[in-house]
Amino acid sequence: MRGLTTAVDAVRASASRRTLSSVVASSSRGLATTTNPPEQPRKRFAKLDDGLTFDDFVSGEPLPSAERVVLGNTSQPRLPSFLKHPIPKGKSYTEIKKDLRGLKLHTVCEEAKCPNIGECWGGDKGEATATIMLMGDTCTRGCRFCSIKTSKAPPPLDVHEPENTAEAISRWGLGYIVLTSVDRDDLVDGGAKHIAETISKIKQKAPKILVEALTPDFANKDKKYIGLVASSGLDVFAHNVETVERCTPFVRDRRANFEQSLEVLRYAKESAAANGKEILTKTSIMLGVGEQEEELHDALRRLRAVNVDVVTFGQYMRPTKRHMKVDRYVEPVEFAKWKEVAEGMGFLYVASGPLVRSSYKAGEFFIKNVLNKRRAEAAKKAAAELSSFEAAPAEKSA
Q: What distances in angstroms separate CA 391 from CA 120, 273, 326, 388, 397, one per listed residue?
């Protein structure tokens, strides 16, 4: 009984202590509430007392230069009016875009944000043209001027692309078509067989069409792949040096270099001739990336030394803020000067202007006429040789 009484007393003592603790805690909270009232929320439209008066804004005193706000990008030269172009639109533009999407084809016109897309796609369907980009829309290189997507391991090649490309071109009824491609350093042949197969299928569907191919440099691949493309039936083998030798490391991917590009152009013409085919070689140079006048003269001399037939000059235009800045905008009169200089060096054709690109309609029209004239002369020569061959047995029998 005595043990039970002791246990009850212990329970009562514990309850008493808990009650006292609650009272003290409540008192403490009440005291805290009395001495530190909660901060009232600020009104949404509360007036800000910053110490300024109306007179501070109308005093007429100029602000210090450090406090002035300058709108716009002052680190870049302003885009001149002659480089501005209209938004692409029209029936032909829409139909070509629909054909390309339906056949899952890509164009450098869209991927590289070419300013001439409205002009090239907007003409009559027999005249309008798009530069089809083979081997997908992802490149294994990362040139600082180019807006095409890059990856070390792009998706596999589309085996149906050569056939689909030939189909699209046959629909347009063109006399001249330009093909280009991304770089595919991940492939054993750099994509040479894919390009050659596409050209072959185009020629099968439209034997009279003239084909220009703007190719990669097939760096670290066997030279035979350059020859494979050059001898595949194309009429113009194009490969761009892009800029002068000194600027190349700052403009192009580190795997590309000026001398290497010269070798591609030289070997393409020689290998085609060795296979009994006559082709034109073509390249393009961007101005406004920091090149110097004497460097351009040197580049042109070296291009002629490897028998390049066609050169184009255009203005570099920065595709996005992530890309290389424009060094300067070149005036049309300077482009006219370089056209005159290059023609004086013996180039067959020169296109030079702010909006000129490697795939340039006026240039294609000129090259088409040159090639058709050569075809006619070759056919005439072949007919003459055949006539003399047939006449020889008759003379012997007589």
A: 50, 29, 65, 5, 10
